[in-house]
Amino acid sequence: MKFTLSWLKDHLETDATLEQICERLTAIGLEVEDVDDRAAYLPFVIAKVISADKHPQADKLKVLMVDTGSGAPVQVVCGAPNARAGLVGAFAAPGTYVPGIDVTLSVGNIRGVESHGMMCSEKEMQISDSHDGIIDLPEDAPVGTSFAAYAGLDDPMIEINLTPNRPDCTSVHGIARDLAASGLGTLKTPVAPSFKVAGETMTKVRLDLGEDTHLCPGFALRLVRGVRNGPSPKWMQQRLLAIGLRPINALVDVTNYMTFDQGRPLHVFDAAKVTGNLTVRRAKEGEKVLALDTREYALSPANVIIADEDGIESIGGIMGGEHSGCDGNTTDVLIESALWDPMNIAKTGRTLGIISDARYRFERGVDPEYMVPGLERATQLIVDICGGVPAKTDVVGYAGYTPKVVHFPVSEVKRLTGLEVGSDEAVSILKGLGFGVEGSGERVSVSVPSWRPDVDGKADLVEEVMRIHGVDNIKPEPIESLGSVNGKILTTLQIRTRLAKRALAARGMLEAVTWSFIAKAQAELFGGGAPSLSLANPIAADMSDMRPSLLPGLLTAGQRNADKGFGDVAIFEVSGTYENDTPSGQRRVAGGIRRGTASLAGAGRSWSNAAKGGGKPVDVFDAKADAIAVLEACGVPMGNVQFEAGGPSWYHPGRSGTIKLGPKIVLGTFGEFHPKVLEALDVSGALSGFEVYVDAMPEPKKKATRTKPALELSPFQAVKRDFAFVVDKTVEAGAILKAASSADRKLVAGVNVFDVFEGASLGEGKKSVAIEVVIQPAERTLTDEDFEALTGKIIANVTKSTGGVLRA
Amino acid sequence: MSDLQALKEKLLTEVTGADDEAAIEAVRVNALGKKGSISELLKTLGTMSPEERQTRGAAINALKTDVFDAITARKSALKDAAIAQRLARETVDISLPVRSSPAERGRIHPISQIIDEITAIFADMGFSIAEGPDIETDYYNFTALNFPEGHPAREMHDTFFFNPDENGERKVLRTHTSPVQVRTMEAQKPPIRIIIPGKTYRQDSDATHSPMFHQVEGLVVDTKSNVANMRWILEEFCKAFFEVDDVTMRFRPSFFPFTEPSFEVDIQCDRSSGPIVKFGEGTDWMEILGCGMVHPNVLRAGGLDPDVYQGFAWGMGLDRIAMLKYGMPDLRNFFDADVRWMSHYGFRPLDMPTLFGGLSA
Lengths: 808, 361
Description:
The complex is a heterodimer of chains A (about 800) and B (about 350). Chain A contains 19 helices and 42 strands. The interface between A and B is large, with 99 and 90 residues.
């Protein structure tokens, strides 16, 4: 919402400075977004050209002697075609900044002739784009005075960022009312209309909306006969220009002026172009109208229009039609002042894509009680400017306004804001804003004025009193302490989310945050793409579906980095994936990928691990280690966790695994990726990745005590024994480890694989798995016989469950 | 006695001549071993007369001591030399580079770090963390928050919609973290003190807007918390978060459907040095958050009587305050997963924000 200072002062009697006004506007909730104090125009003065002679060295230049109103005439070199003796224009002395050419003037020398300033064009002053010549003012323009003051350019422009709840402040008058209530001046009473009414408005209006009368709760129409429609007066044009509106003609300008002055949008029809009576009705499907913005709109029954016998003349409350618009030939004008349903206006404006000053006001709510007075005021302006004889106004459909009444205990102000505001002050603030107040003391009845549809209840009145009394008067007050040391505040899931992030970052991975929505094709590759998870209005085609997995986003991010020359990438994300559109369908997943040689030890080759195969591409075991690190960091008891060969379809079937807890709970997956999936994602290179479902981890068992179990140390030395078994290639090392461990749960303290070997010497389809068994005696030192018995049992167990034979 | 003298000289010459541990051991065995020359002499002591024993015996013992000492000294010297040699042999080029620790290379995303910073501050004031789903119903995202159907304020949210289900209801991607307010009130009775960090979505994209971004919401509901308390909490938060001794904040009356009265809050700062914003000084104002007293209709939606319960809520952009504090110029980079950006703007995994250790290093 834009207005100028002088415009505000039409409505507000005040001595306050521009700065004070702006400060107060922001303080009472009308945030000042921009102020143009027009100081840039101040140095320009009105000056008269005394003589204009040809420049001795240049045909197109003239040497002017200019009377600037002070001191001796100055010499100015000028190239404007209209420069002549007797011309009165705008002069800029040396030292003046000229905005249109972005130059600060100095005394110049133009082809041997000194020039002491400049006669300016409108373009040079940034008033308009006109550069036909220098400004040419009437001869009586007062030489030596401020050009800006003469041209009305010294009126500061204020723009406020209006919140959608304040339709009353879409008008200069409403803003003035708020300022007056806050004590910054007195609201001026508008002059009562004083024109003579003669005759009837012959054009009649019929509301044809069936049951839906709320779509147009009132319509007032008046004919004014015999107007002369020329340009509107200079003061009106200047104000409209100052807020960025283009003056059109007096009749149209009056409606625009009323829109901003009073927040009362109006429409004027050229009565000669209206055939028969007007009907307010829903548009027919596909019915078309050429609007005043010269665009054609196809309408539907959701849109309410005003039609005459020939068709649509206006889109109600949004924009008039081009056909019956007023122009220089208009002599009889129909002025419309109507009310429209805010929701329907918003919807129509949105579907048609029309942003207009009328829509802006009607979708917020226009004061119903000002429908007729607004028409009166507009009539007055038209009669004053264009002459003519107004006929009687016809009003249809208006049922009047019944104010909402709010029972308001004044103590609510203290309860909600902490402010001590006396009952008298609260009442006086509300009255200043136009509220009716009945009763006195602690509890009053407040009736809401017709221009404040936003006020419904007590809290709204608290806000009114608070913002006018002054928010700065509310002093910060500590919130009550809960009185003890705060306990654990995070949930297990929140704690595990943080631990997973820190654990993965501690493994050299970088945390990424990628989009929650991905391309449909990618979602489908990872088991997603369900219709219920597809956006109806995605911002881009490749951001259309909620991700079923973190991996596609991470894999494509890895490729983007590789394309920039950073191919060794280890990145992770701990965030949501979406199985369905319910709250429980949103999973909490820790996922990560490693690309190229970005292993735990570090990426690329290094002299120190060259002997150990440094710079090796990442593989399934890098991903497995990352997944285990997350599980361990989150405190999952690893003894019960099983690793099954194979994973979901996006993994390499022979180089992936699924992590389970019991038969049902899937804790995660890991592996290298299926070549077809990588191809479909358009990514390449050595890649492995994992996902761990943080929300699937069981809640840790509640412990009865913080005390750790007693440490039991065996006094007997632990012994290590190595075994190598030859098994079929398909036998899992895990099975051998399990068989060896279960040979004697008491004595076998640990089993580890230290070598896996395949070779012709073992035979086709065979491999050798070498394990190291740690034996920890608990009760006594083991004898040779004990060892022999245990060794035999380990071998027998492994043979029984895997078919393995001890390697000779 | 000259035989003893001669033997001594011979043995000492051998000791001096021995140049490694094996040689000196051979000398020892030849002299002091079972059949060694001195051991043989010692064996003769038994056959000597007492007088002879006194003179010759003493001389033999003296010889033994002298030779033994000489061997021991030589042995020790040779051992030292051997160690010195080995150390020299084992010397390496310590200028060769080693790999950095993974914990030094890894990074936490600024969003995660900021959430931890905020958690540390509000945990100290008795708040817990609440979360809610990204895919919301129209009810929780709008209606329960007092956004009437068709209200222009709904339009201002640039909402992402899902396709309507068989009942014609369409879910949305939450446009703010505020739906968790009502979800929390439904699940938990006052007093409520929560903060709600999370992802939010709007159909918008430029340097300061992204279709996905993050907000943190705060909610206090009890029977007495008011605007004065809210001012205190927000000022304390800004001081702690921006790690300055003092901040000046400006509360401007504003409008949000779910609060009444509502405010926008500006923080005084110095923006004269380009993209770097300094808080606690300067003369510029920067809008930093929106807040207000929870609207009676929102309390009702949460099952609470607005004449009994009251409280306040606030919300701010997490990405935005991260940018303000740590100086990232463009929001879109947050979601690019560019390793250079993550390495530069990310945080080391062991840099845990705490109040006892300071929020940032």
